[in-house]
Design a protein that fits this description.
single chain, 316 residues, alpha/beta, Rossmann fold, 2 domains, 6-stranded parallel sheet, D-isomer_2_OHA_DH_cat_dom
């Protein structure tokens, strides 16, 4: 049987699938050609990340598909229920990239509180002529330790983020409509661990209390954070979105940054991917990455081998 990994798959995943008797195709097929490619090559399994969409049109056009796999967590680019109604297995890897995304959140947070995102833009341009001016401009950093991190969505990635925050000495609060309480275990290199319980609170109270806010929710029908929510937050709050574009109203975010209500933002995802709004890309108070939350070697190895294991289990 043939597997089309249209958005790529790790070498370890390829080897595991080949060992299980599958042929793996890693040719990148344009979205409009996916259905034709699947049919012409007798593909039984299509694997995607966030780039390729597997909607009703592809599902209807490709009766030979047995499995649709998503390398990662969110499956908003797949018509999951429709696929299942056609007898197609839909799989994903919800636990594989949690730590990678959480580390990126703190990359944005740690960079933001010390202005690294802006310093790295200006030092190459003016570091040799305005060193002391830049030193003064970036001299008012703050520490994360002792501050309150509000986590919106305390699922696997939210919990991984909470562990890192606790390790840095932050107070952690959370809001989640589906998880009222969770025990978070912070494990150390020598086998010791500390466990604390995080109880979910209202989104409104989280916005009022948090010094920093990080979002870990699936794609929404509407915004979670708009001008109204920004108005309830602390002056100088910072916000990070490594979840999905469309969770924050980007126009309102820019206004809040310009007014000083929000001190900085970290964005890995955008409403208009792959062409984010220019006012976001050029803003000096935004730390930017191009949707790379799960893009570490370790996460991709875990994703590839986990997908392979599920596919072999279902089809062998």
């Amino acid at each position: 049987m043939k597997v089309l990994a249209n958005d790529g798959i790790s070498k370890s995943g390829i080897l595991a699938l080949e060992k299980g008797g599958f042929e793996v195709i890693t040719t990148k097929v344009a979205q409009e050609q996916v259905a034709n490619f699947i049919n012409e090559n007798n593909v039984s399994v299509i694997l995607v990340r966030s780039a390729t969409k597997v909607r009703k049109d592809i599902i209807d056009a490709c009766p030979g598909i047995k499995i649709i796999g998503r390398g990662g967590v969110g499956m908003d680019n797949i018509d999951v229920e429709y696929a299942k109604s056609k007898g197609i297995h839909v799989i994903n890897t919800p636990a594989s990239s949690s730590e990678s995304v959480a580390e990126l959140v703190f990359g944005h947070l740690l960079g933001g509180v010390r202005f690294l995102h802006d310093s790295n833009r200006n030092m190459p341009l003016e570091g040799d002529t305005k060193f002391n001016d830049l030193k003064k401009a970036y001299a008012n950093g703050i520490e994360l330790r002792g501050k309150t991190l509000g986590i919106v969505g305390i699922g696997r990635i939210g919990q991984a983020t909470a562990k890192m925050a606790l390790g840095l000495g932050m107070k952690v609060i959370a809001a989640d409509s589906f998880i009222p309480k969770v025990d978070v275990k912070v494990e150390f290199f020598d086998g010791q661990s500390v466990t604390t319980t995080i109880t979910s609170q209202s989104l409104e109270s989280l916005f009022k209390e948090a010094d920093f806010i990080t979002l870990h929710v699936p794609a929404q029908n509407g915004y979670i954070v708009t001008e109204k929510e920004f108005a309830t937050m602390k002056d100088g709050v910072a916000i990070v979105n490594c979840a999905r574009g469309g969770v924050i109203n980007e126009v309102d975010l820019v206004k809040a940054l310009d007014s000083g209500k929000v001190s900085f933002a970290g964005l890995d995802v955008f409403e208009n991917e792959p062409t984010p709004a220019t006012q976001l890309l050029m803003h000096p108070k935004i730390s930017l990455t191009p949707h790379i939350g799960a893009a570490t070697g370790e996460a991709q190895d875990r994703i590839g081998t986990e997908l392979a294991s599920q596919i072999i289990s279902l089809l062998s």
